């Protein structure tokens, strides 16, 4: 603050600069009146003065009088206060909006200039991407400063990607600035089994500025239009929504009409079209469970996985087929020689937040020719051999670690050379992966073995590379979970598959091609912590 005061000529340094200029000192004394307000809503308050009239001339594009275009006696300005107001508007408009309240505390002149809507219009555009014609706000009496302070800045912490706490089912919410609204869009997978179709989305809530007092929160759930709602920001990475008029969610036909409507939206069909009895039970169970959360929901922040040049493909969000449970959303992330698929949406067997698949990138698989691949027993033999190899390597690694610990405790013998052999073994595994990909063609024929069930028969018939992996299976209610061997199949940059050996089932995954804003993790550590948190909540 002291630096700002010296720059603008306020404070002890001012007398030195303008010694002998009594008239300018008197004006400076008035301008240096302190202001203690730090809220962006108040930055730029005050009565109508000559500075306000200058600001209005800036807004209207009218020329300023010559007296404000240069310092006294035509010399170069010695402080910011001597600069033309239109130049100060440009300078202030380039600063982050969160810094402007502090700037307004320097003096009343700065505070009055900060009432210029041009400054706040620029901050709305550059910080939040608001491209609407904000001049139309003048009709409603709402200023760009109001939009920035009471809408955008106030609710900035809820922008980004979130996972709703809906038991095992989870979900994907994207909160964005959309024109002069902040809208929470719930993203839904396409109807089963069309995994390559685009995502569906529907609004759950919206926030907008109806008048200058405060922003209005509206619930968008149901079929009767927007109605009164409430948002509570619990902490930086968690918030909750509440509907104050749940009668808007009900239908005149009762629960049966609500279920039929939900079924058409969720599955794109009627219950009579679903002949599998177990699938009917799962659908009815999901409707009953999720209906309990139509009036109040809690959301926790999730990040998109960070990427690096060494990644097999670009990490991100994918839609995947999960048998009778339909399509679910999975996040693919890379962690050194491992890749993980974490459920963002889930089901009663494997809930949202759990790690559905893990890929061992140090153990690529060389598939047999296309005819031999049709034999499930042959594929199973190859995978089980690699599983045994992985088990032996883990035992050897644990044994080396124990021997190193004993050697360090003894302190009478040099460190065991087995540690170096372990590092060499890891290099060999990495080299084996590279050599396998070098020897393999750019694409090779692929077909599912006989007896393997796939919800989508329209899977790619060529693949790039395959790796050994494990998949998580469990009983209803996530009982007796265990990891079973499988095959990760990379088809192209946007599609991969997983063969579950024990289930004799195949899941096909397709990339979600949506550009999500405010969803990047601030660091790798923050992303890993987020994965750990959502998994612990699911457990």
Automatic annotation (TrEMBL):
Pfam family example for this protein? F-box-like
Stretches of Basic and acidic residues bias are at: 21-30
What subcellular compartments does it reside in? Cytoplasm
Which Gene Ontology biological process is one annotated for this entry? Answer: SCF-dependent proteasomal ubiquitin-dependent protein catabolic process
Specify residue ranges for compositional bias: Acidic residues: 32-42
What pathway or pathways are given for this protein in its record?
Protein modification; protein ubiquitination
Q: Which keywords are on file for this protein?
A: Cell cycle, Cytoplasm, DNA damage, Ubl conjugation pathway
Gene3D superfamilies, alphabetized? 1.20.1280.50
Q: Which residues lie within the region annotated Disordered?
A: 12-73, 393-443
GO CC, sorted alphabetically, is: cytoplasm; SCF ubiquitin ligase complex
InterPro entries of this UniProt entry?
F-box-like_dom_sf, F-box_dom, FBXO31/39
The residues covered by the F-box domain are 77-123
Tell me which positions the record assigns to the signal sequence: none
Q: Which domain of life is it from?
A: Eukaryota
PANTHER family on file:
F-BOX FAMILY PROTEIN, F-BOX ONLY PROTEIN 31
Which family does the record assign?
Belongs to the FBXO31 family.
Q: What is this protein called?
A: FBX31 protein
Q: Which organism is it from?
A: Loxia curvirostra (Red crossbill)
> What lineage is this protein's organism placed in?
Eukaryota, Metazoa, Chordata, Craniata, Vertebrata
């Amino acid at each position: 603050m002291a630096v700002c005061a010296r720059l603008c000529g306020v404070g002890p340094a001012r007398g030195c600069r303008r010694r002998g200029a009594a008239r300018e000192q008197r004006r400076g004394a008035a301008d240096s009146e302190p202001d203690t307000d730090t809220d962006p809503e108040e930055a730029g308050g005050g009565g109508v003065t000559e500075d306000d009239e200058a600001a209005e001339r800036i807004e209207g594009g009218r020329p300023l009088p010559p007296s404000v275009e240069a310092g006294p006696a035509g010399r170069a300005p010695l402080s910011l206060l001597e600069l033309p107001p239109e130049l100060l508007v440009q300078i202030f408009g380039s600063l982050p909006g969160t810094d402007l309240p502090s700037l307004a505390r320097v003096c009343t002149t700065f505070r009055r200039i900060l009432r210029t809507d041009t400054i706040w219009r620029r901050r709305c555009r550059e910080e939040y991407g608001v491209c609407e014609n904000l001049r139309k706000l003048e009709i409603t009496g709402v200023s760009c400063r109001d939009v920035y302070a009471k809408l955008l800045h106030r609710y900035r912490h809820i922008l980004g990607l979130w996972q709703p706490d809906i038991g095992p089912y989870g979900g994907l919410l994207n909160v964005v600035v959309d024109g002069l609204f902040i809208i929470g869009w719930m993203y839904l997978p396409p109807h089963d089994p069309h995994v390559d179709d685009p995502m569906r989305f529907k609004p759950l809530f919206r926030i907008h500025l109806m008048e200058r007092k405060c922003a209005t929160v509206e619930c968008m759930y149901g079929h009767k239009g927007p109605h009164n709602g409430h948002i509570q920001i619990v902490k930086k990475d968690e918030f909750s929504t509440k509907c104050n008029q749940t009668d808007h969610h009900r239908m005149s036909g009762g629960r049966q009409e609500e279920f039929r409507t939900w079924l058409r939206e969720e599955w794109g069909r009627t219950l009579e079209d679903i002949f599998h009895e177990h699938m009917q039970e799962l659908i009815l169970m999901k409707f009953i469970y999720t209906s309990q959360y139509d009036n109040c929901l809690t959301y926790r922040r999730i990040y998109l996985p960070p990427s690096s040049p060494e990644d097999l493909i670009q990490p991100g969000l994918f839609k995947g087929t999960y048998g009778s449970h339909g399509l679910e959303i999975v996040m693919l992330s890379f962690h050194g020689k491992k890749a993980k698929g974490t459920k963002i949406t889930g089901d009663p067997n494997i809930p949202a937040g759990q790690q559905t698949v893990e890929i061992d990138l140090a153990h690529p698989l060389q598939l047999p020719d296309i005819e031999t691949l049709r034999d499930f027993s042959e594929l199973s033999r190859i995978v089980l051999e690699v599983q045994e190899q992985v088990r032996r390597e883990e035992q050897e690694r644990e044994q080396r670690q124990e021997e190193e610990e004993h050697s360090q405790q003894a302190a009478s013998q040099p460190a065991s050379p087995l540690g170096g052999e372990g590092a060499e073994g890891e290099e060999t595994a990495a080299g084996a992966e590279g050599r396998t990909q070098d020897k393999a063609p750019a694409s090779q024929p692929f077909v599912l073995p006989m007896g393997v069930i796939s919800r989508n028969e329209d899977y790619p018939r060529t693949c790039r590379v395959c790796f050994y992996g494990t998949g998580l299976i469990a009983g209803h209610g996530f009982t007796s979970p265990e990891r079973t061997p499988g095959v990760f199949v990379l088809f192209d940059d946007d599609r991969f598959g997983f063969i579950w050996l024990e289930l004799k089932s195949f899941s096909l995954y397709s990339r979600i091609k949506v550009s999500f804003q405010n969803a990047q993790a601030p660091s790798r550590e923050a992303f890993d912590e987020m994965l750990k948190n959502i998994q612990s909540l699911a457990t």
